[in-house]
Amino acid sequence: MGFESFVYINGWNIFVTMCNTLITFLIIKKFLFGPVRKMLAAREEEVQTMYANAEQAQSEAENLRVEYTTRLSKAKEEAAEIVGSATRRATVRSEEILKESSQQAAAMMKKAESTIEQERKKAMNELKDEVASLSVMIASKVVERDVKQADHDRFIEEFIDKVG
Length: 164
Prior knowledge:
By secondary structure, the chain is mostly helical.
């Protein structure tokens, strides 16, 4: 009874061993493989969801980057346009100011010339009157007689023409 009892193969033994193996396999399949498969399927689904979320987030980030780049370029264009517009307005305004100041200067020069001309005429008239009165006084002393008004006017005109 040594080794032979261990190795003894009986049909019933094989059948019972096969049944035990089958029952063990079914139990393991029901209680171990099923939950493990469900757990692996859930884990695989979770990983797929994470990949999908990551791809979606990457796509959104790319869209936001493109939108940001577009907005930035539009902002730069608008800024350049605003600066150009301001420069043009400043140039136009400075030209207007220069034109106005030159017109004002011309008007002031014209007014000054007019005033000078009026003052010159006034001074000439005063000078004529003074010269006339001096002439009458000198002529009356020289001639010692009264001079008629017509002669007086003629003497004044002659004197003024000679004096210049």
